[in-house]
Amino acid sequence: MSDNIISRDDWSLHRKGHLDQQRHQEKVRDAIKNNLGEIISEEGIILSDGKKTVKVPIKSLEEFHFRFDFNKQKHTGQGSGESKVGDVLGREAQEKGPGKGPGAGEEPGVDYYEAEVTFEELAGILFQDLELPNLDSKKTPIITNDAIEFNDIRKQGIMSNVDKKRTILEAIKRNAVHGQKKLETITPEDLRFKTWEIKPRYESNAVVLAMMDTSGSMGNFEKYIARTFFFWMVQFLRSKYENVVIHFLSHHTEAKEVTEHEFFTKGESGGTRCSSVYRLALEIIKKNYNPADYNLYPFHFTDGDNIASDNENCVRLVNELLQYTNLFGYGEILRTQYTSTLMSAYKKGLKDDKFRGVTIRDKTEVYKTLKTFFSTSQRS
Amino acid sequence: MSNELKELEKSIDKIAEVAKGFGLDFYPVRFEICPADIIYTFGAYGMPTRFSHWSFGKSFHKMKMQYDFNLSRIYELVINSNPCYAFLLEGNSLIQNKLVIAHVFAHCDFFKNNASFARTNRGMVESMAVSAERIRKMEFDYGRPEVERILDAAISIQEHVDNRGFIDRERKEDKSDTKNTVDKKDPYEDLFALDHPIPKEEETPQKVLPKPQKDLLKYIMKNSKYLKEWQREILAIIRDEMLYFYPQMETKIMNEGWASYWHARILRELDLSEAEAIDFAIMHAGVIQPSRMINPYFLGYKIWEGIEKRWNEPDKEDKEELGLKGGEGRTKMFEIREMENDVSFIRNYLTRDIIEELDMFSFQKVGNTWQVTEKDWRQVRDDLSANLFNCGYPYIVVEDGDYNRSGELLLAHCHEGVDLDIQYLERTLPNVYTLWGRGVHLSTIVDGKPVLYSFSGERVIKSLR
């Protein structure tokens, strides 16, 4: 008989790899959560248009150890027979990615861990804590769908809905009545069932007015920030609310309503007169949306470089808007440490809680802005 | 037992017989057929019974994905233990399994006979299972985040053990511990000595270590004032497991080459049908396929074949200079498989012929292009051998455990021409701090200048030495 044995076992319960993989995924998710500021302002993600999976570089999940600098090391390679000194094997990879240079994927510097997440997953994490603030549900709600809620316990029901905990408690109680400290048989009288109710789910009407400065003073950075914000705002509203109407308004010295596509792609030039867009907003509200029936949310992004004489007008118009709306979000994109005259005018002239102003100096602050505008309690 | 298993069992017996006939000497082997995700789990963990950690999950995921996309395939996995465990991929064809079985026997022969493995724990499967259970219990007792924090830190310096440490230890024991050693007549004898402990002389605290210590894990485990007992235990576990894997890492080229050489020789002895012979040839070619970077299977295979040829039919030069008689190919091979590791294997037996036949070269970065910089066979050989030293990890030692007279830890990188990856260094030093509990420093050389990196809880500071 031989020393060697062959066998085949049932390995279906050996789940270790999968469990640790899950733990790794958890860490990826945590890392994404902690770096949302940086991740959501990544160009690649905005450009992905919400369709495919996105790659998110995650520093904290690399396994760090002492190692040599790959770029300063000599390596051994193999040619096809005619290699000679001076042969170029590859160039510094312009873009990270395999296939470029020798030993693809082994060079440090590009060897950061990239987690692949679907857009929905990322959006789910991001939108978790966001909501439309001051939403007034009394304003003519619309029924969106019916929700089933398990919220009642009865003595009759179908076996699949049996409430085990309550049933056992009943059995213990029954025994206790007879002075017995035990749980023996369960009689039909002990059985408790969960039952449900169908509840209509109401959702309030909400209208969002997205206003953006497209004047000449808005440089690439400013436009990028404004569009990043609006991109996530649109994604957020569409994923969380079914009855939100969004109007896109762009302005320089004059304002006009544009399509979503134009809003995200077109740039213009000229000076800046913010009051123009506020007037347009008021016009739209007065014409279509009675504030008694609708929740209204105007958001305005600009570089704050407004014609000085117009500031007073702006304060007056925003004050008027605030009377009708649930919140007014004002985002100012500034690369300097100064505060613009428009922001100071608002700070002085607007005393309403519903006004929320944010200054953005860095692209990671888009996340902070989303959280400021779309939270119930926070005030900036 | 199914027909397939019966068929395999017959093949195993036959192959074992042929292997033994060639002089291969191995432990009994327990073969086990496993589905792909199990093989890949073992591949990621290095051992079926190893503890849980997210980094294993990460590599499992990566390996499994490559398998699912048909990019790579592990046919087999062998564990260095007695008896030896080998896992065969479910779905291998019979001829694939024949090749794999022959390959496994050769690996097992190598594990059993190569000097590097002489001190490995052959009961590691069970030891790791016990350790995994210990760590699981710690997770219950101290919480997973806390255990993970220590594991993360320990794993990040796990390569820094000293698998030649026993040489020093034995020498010291010879001198001072004579009264302590018990004449070992049976394996439990030393336990009786525990009843009458011999009082040790009190050691005076040492400011400067007698000589730099390579075993970082051991030094920190013994000397950190900050670690709790269970945390030291984690370091001990990581260290033991690393010492177990270390010989495999330092003989990769030899071992894979050895197994490839023998699976080819053994299968030639079997009666293969024509179809099987073709399948075998395809698979063998796949295993030893050359690649741009060095394929250890291929290089090792070539060197072994070179040795056999050279000692079988030495040329005039070898006859005169080395006094080779010829016909000693196999004898020499068995001698080398016992005595050498990758560094010496490459340095001693990678010949000019092989380097030229494989068109090997050294390359490095010049400006922003990667260029062939060396074709001289001696230099190419030495470059490769140097890269394999210390399994390709930087050689880092503990220089002082009471640096600045404040209990801080000074590590020194023994710079041998290549700088460290600074980004990684700056992220690893905090992990050492986690374990040491006080300031940690690492001295190295960057761009020709001696520098010191320090971390004491906030951020890594670089200073010139």
Please explain how this structure is put together:
The complex is a heterodimer of chains A (380) and B (465). Chain A is an alpha/beta fold and 380 residues long. Chain A is 33% helix and 23% strand. In chain A, the strands form three sheets. Chain A has a six-stranded mixed sheet with strand order 10-9-8-11-12-13, sandwiched between helices. A two-stranded antiparallel sheet of chain A has the order 2-5. In chain A, a hairpin with a 3-residue loop joins β9 (244-251) and β10 (255-258). The radius of gyration of chain A is 30 Å and the shape is flat. The relative contact order of chain A is 0.11. Mean pLDDT of chain A is 81; it is low at 94-111. Helix content of chain B is 54%, strand content 13%. Chain B has helices at residues 3-21, 36-45, 54-68, 94-113, 124-142, 144-156, 165-176, 189-193, 216-223, 229-249, 252-269, 274-287, 296-312, 316-322, 329-339, 342-349, 352-357, 377-388, 422-436, and strands at 29-34, 76-79, 84-89, 360-366, 369-374, 396-403, 408-413, 440-446, 449-455, 461-464. In chain B, a hairpin with a 4-residue loop joins β6 (396-403) and β7 (408-413). The chains are: A alpha/beta (380), B alpha+beta (465). At the A-B interface, β1, α1, β3 and β4 of A face α1, β1, α2, α3 and β4 of B. β4 of chain A pairs antiparallel with β5 (369-374) of chain B, so a sheet runs across the interface.
> How many whole angstroms does the radius of gyration of chain A measure?
30 Å
Instruction: Let me know the number of strands of chain B.
Output: 10
Structural class of chain B: alpha+beta
End-to-end Cα distance of chain B, whole Å, is: 69 Å
Helix content of chain B: 40-55%
Number of strands of chain A: 13
SS strand fraction of chain B:
5-15%
Helical fraction of chain A equals 25-40%
Rg of chain B, Å, rounded: 25 Å
How far is the first residue's CA from the last residue's CA of chain A? 81 Å
The side-by-side strand order for the widest beta sheet of chain A comes to 10-9-8-11-12-13
Shape of chain B: globular
Uncertain stretches of chain B? 176-182
Described by strand count, sense and barrel closure, the largest sheet of chain A is: 6 strands, mixed
Average pLDDT over all residues of chain A: 81
Largest sheet of chain B: 5 strands, mixed
Given as residue ranges, the uncertain stretches of chain A (5+ residues, pLDDT < 50) are 94-111
Q: How do the SSEs of chain B run, as a string of H and E?
A: HEHHEEHHHHHHHHHHHHHHEEHEEHEEE
β-sheet strand percentage of chain A: 15-25%
Shape of chain A: flat
